[in-house]
From TrEMBL:
<keyword id="KW-0995">Kinetochore</keyword>
<keyword id="KW-0131">Cell cycle</keyword>
<feature type="region of interest" description="Disordered">
    <location>
        <begin position="1"/>
        <end position="119"/>
    </location>
</feature>
<protein>
    <recommendedName>
        <fullName>Kinetochore protein NDC80</fullName>
    </recommendedName>
</protein>
<keyword id="KW-0175">Coiled coil</keyword>
<keyword id="KW-0137">Centromere</keyword>
<comment type="function">
    <text>Acts as a component of the essential kinetochore-associated NDC80 complex, which is required for chromosome segregation and spindle checkpoint activity.</text>
</comment>
<keyword id="KW-0132">Cell division</keyword>
<comment type="similarity">
    <text>Belongs to the NDC80/HEC1 family.</text>
</comment>
<feature type="compositionally biased region" description="Polar residues">
    <location>
        <begin position="8"/>
        <end position="22"/>
    </location>
</feature>
<keyword id="KW-0158">Chromosome</keyword>
<keyword id="KW-0498">Mitosis</keyword>
<dbReference type="InterPro" id="IPR005550">
    <property type="entry name" value="Kinetochore_Ndc80"/>
</dbReference>
<dbReference type="GO" id="GO:0031262">
    <property type="term" value="C:Ndc80 complex"/>
</dbReference>
<feature type="coiled-coil region">
    <location>
        <begin position="508"/>
        <end position="613"/>
    </location>
</feature>
<feature type="domain" description="Kinetochore protein Ndc80 CH">
    <location>
        <begin position="108"/>
        <end position="227"/>
    </location>
</feature>
<dbReference type="GO" id="GO:0051315">
    <property type="term" value="P:attachment of mitotic spindle microtubules to kinetochore"/>
</dbReference>
Length: 647
């Protein structure tokens, strides 16, 4: 917080609402600020007034009272009829825009506000002291609670000036003046509503019993104002700060419009005092801001226009194109063909499912038979064991039988080992057979999908309409020749596929040749279009030259008409003068009068002739322009017909 307060105090002078004071120079007609004790800090020139919504209120009575009276005198001066005139051209000198200390005078005795706070209560005083102490510590003002409890005049002055500087960093304290002369003006400048209740004599001993509660309440009010200003400055996104750099490109808030208007007026005001009468840069900056604001809307409008043009074009195409019934019938035929193919694939998959089900049933039956055989062998072994136990044999027979038993046991073990090896081999072969069968089925599925993709499912196009290229795998057969069901691969399927591939290559080559022909025709059409464009440009140049000649003829005719009119006027004056002279001198000047009349008729005829020539030249040029337009229209129609025929 201390770092933020340090930065805020180093910023340009601002009022308690964070409005940056303008550095606008004062006009020469404005009065200098007097050096009296009454000083102002919040009446900076053209300061922005924070925006308060209609009906809005503040929880702080003093703060809201201050906002209700925060009227900038410089902005008030704009309503004067002489605003905007330079001092040299004003008919009457404009008064100072600074109201001075008079506007900040406290209310009269009948309007003095009574402090509603319980400032005489000990608990409330302790609370105010604690908040003042915490705020001073947070703003890096070195003071102890003991000093705040036993306040002196010097410490009170230092605290007061520190708190006022936080609320208004530009307040002009003067070290040459007494503190009593600065205390009341500062409170009145900050619109402290209870300043009239404070006596300057209390400042000599601010810690006395009768003065300290009121002075402590004033310090507490300054602390609250400092916190309010800090919170307001920290709200960087608050539009009422009216910071032009933080206005978004797209905005609709009236406060943003007011901020741009104020910035424009401020910059224009500075340019005006530098002698400018036209504010091109300010106009350009304002137009740029609103152009950015309207850029997205204009872009959306252009996109909507493009979409409208596309929609109209599609509508025209739909109106001019044929009914889509034929296309739908073709689509229906393709769908029916695909349905037949899918039914065939489904039939093959169901057949494969039945084969697998039968194979599983056979394997289960074989497993049951082998389990029954194993149980029988086990029962026979137990029976033989019982027989051996009941027999009465000699030792030699026992030895021989043991030897035979061991030999048979070894043989049995060998046979068991061989049987296990055979079983392992059989199982591995069954796994290999199963894997190869699955791979073969996948290959056949891929083959069927490829046939469906290239359109070779039955029925095939002629001359292969009697050939079925489908293959099915029969894993249940023991004959390798019957594993694949269908046509013979070597004799029928492979030659047929080769023939189909050759036909497709031939068709592709034909299509490529046709495409090359179409490209050549398009190149020719493009060249002809360029030639037509060249001819159109040449004709346009001729028309422009003809228009220039017509303009020259019109100007010459007008000039000659003016000269003729002037000559006619001169002749009329001479004729009037001759008539006057004839009346005075008799009939001797009759011949001169007739000569002047003859010259006048010649000038009139010359003017009429020039008018007729001008009209004929204009008609001729208009006729040539019409012929040119008709020729261009005919060329464009022929070009359009040619392109439509090519398509």
């Amino acid at each position: 917080m201390s770092e933020l307060l340090r930065r805020s105090t180093m910023q340009p002078a601002t009022d308690i609402y964070g409005n940056t004071r303008s550095g606008l120079p004062m006009p020469s007609t404005a009065k200098k600020a007097s050096s009296s004790a009454m000083r102002m800090s919040l009446a900076g020139p053209a300061a922005r007034t924070p925006y308060l919504p209609p009906g809005g209120s503040s929880s702080n009575t003093g703060h809201s009272a201050y906002r209700s009276q925060n009227v900038n005198p410089l902005l008030q001066s704009t309503s004067k009829p002489n605003y905007g005139r330079t001092p040299l051209t004003n008919s009457s000198r404009r008064g100072s825009v600074w109201t001075g200390g008079a506007s900040l005078a406290p209310p009269s005795g009948s309007q003095t506000f009574k402090d509603p706070r319980p400032i005489r209560e000990r608990s409330y005083q302790s609370k105010m002291k604690q908040e003042i102490y915490s705020w001073l510590q947070a703003t890096e003002f070195d003071i102890s609670m003991q000093t705040l409890s036993n306040i002196t005049g010097k410490d009170f002055r230092a605290m007061f000036q520190h708190l006022v500087t936080i609320v208004d960093p530009g307040y002009p304290f003067d070290s040459r003046l007494r503190f009593e002369d600065e205390f009341q003006p500062a409170l009145k400048a900050l619109r402290y509503p209870f300043a009239a209740q404070i006596d300057n004599k209390w400042l000599a001993a601010p810690g006395s019993m009768h003065s300290w509660p009121t002075l402590l309440a004033a310090l507490h009010w300054l602390v609250e104002m400092g916190k309010a200003r800090l919170n307001y400055l920290e709200s960087e996104d608050d539009p009422t700060l009216q910071i032009v750099d933080r206005i978004p490109e797209e905005f609709s808030d009236p406060i943003h419009h007011q901020a741009l208007a104020f910035e424009y007026f401020s910059e224009a005001y500075v340019a005006f005092f530098h002698g400018a009468d036209v504010f091109h840069e300010q106009d350009k900056a304002l137009e740029t801001s609103y152009a950015k604001k309207n850029e997205r809307v204009v872009g959306d409008l252009e996109d909507k226009k493009v979409l409208l043009a596309q929609g109209m074009k599609e509508l025209d195409e739909l109106r001019t194109s044929k009914a889509p019934l034929e296309k739908l019938q073709k689509i229906r035929a393709c769908i029916l063909d695909d349905r037949a193919k899918f039914d065939d694939v489904l039939h093959r998959l169901e057949s494969r499912k039945r084969q697998l089900t039968e194979s599983v049933v056979r394997e289960k039956a074989e497993l049951a038979a082998r389990s029954q055989n194993f149980d029988q062998l086990k029962a026979e072994h137990e029976k033989l064991t019982e027989v051996v136990k009941v027999q009465n044999l000699t030792p030699e027979e026992v030895i021989r039988m043991n030897t035979d038993h061991e030999t048979l046991a070894r043989n049995l073990e060998d046979l068991k080992y061989k049987i296990s090896e055979v079983r392992k081999t059989v199982m591995s072969l069954e796994v290999i057979t199963t894997n190869r069968g699955a791979a073969a089925e996948e290959a056949l599925d891929l083959y069927g999908n490829l046939l469906s993709a290239v359109g070779l499912f039955p029925p095939l196009p002629p001359p292969f309409d009697n050939i079925d290229l489908r293959l099915e795998l029969n894993t249940a057969t023991a004959n390798p020749q019957q594993l694949l069901l269908g046509s013979d691969i070597r004799k029928i399927i492979k030659p047929t596929l080769s023939s189909v591939a050759e036909i497709k290559r031939t068709e592709r080559a034909d299509i490529e040749s046709e495409r090359i022909k179409v490209d050549n025709e398009l190149d020719k059409l493009t060249l002809e279009c360029e030639n037509v464009d060249e001819e159109v440009r040449e004709i346009e140049k001729k028309v422009m030259s003809l228009n220039e000649q017509a303009d020259d003829l019109r100007d010459a005719a007008q000039q000659e008409s003016m000269v003729s009119n002037a000559e006619a006027a001169r002749l009329e004056r001479e004729l009037a003068h001759a008539r006057t002279a004839a009346l005075s001198s008799g009939m001797g000047v009759k011949s001169r009068l007739q000569a002047l009349q003859f010259d006048y008729r010649e000038q009139i005829a010359k003017v009429s002739r020039l008018k007729d020539e001008t009209i004929r030249a204009i008609a001729k040029n208009s006729n040539e322009i019409g012929l040119f337009k008709e020729e261009v229209s005919a060329q464009l129609r022929r070009l359009r017909d040619f392109v439509e025929e090519g398509n």
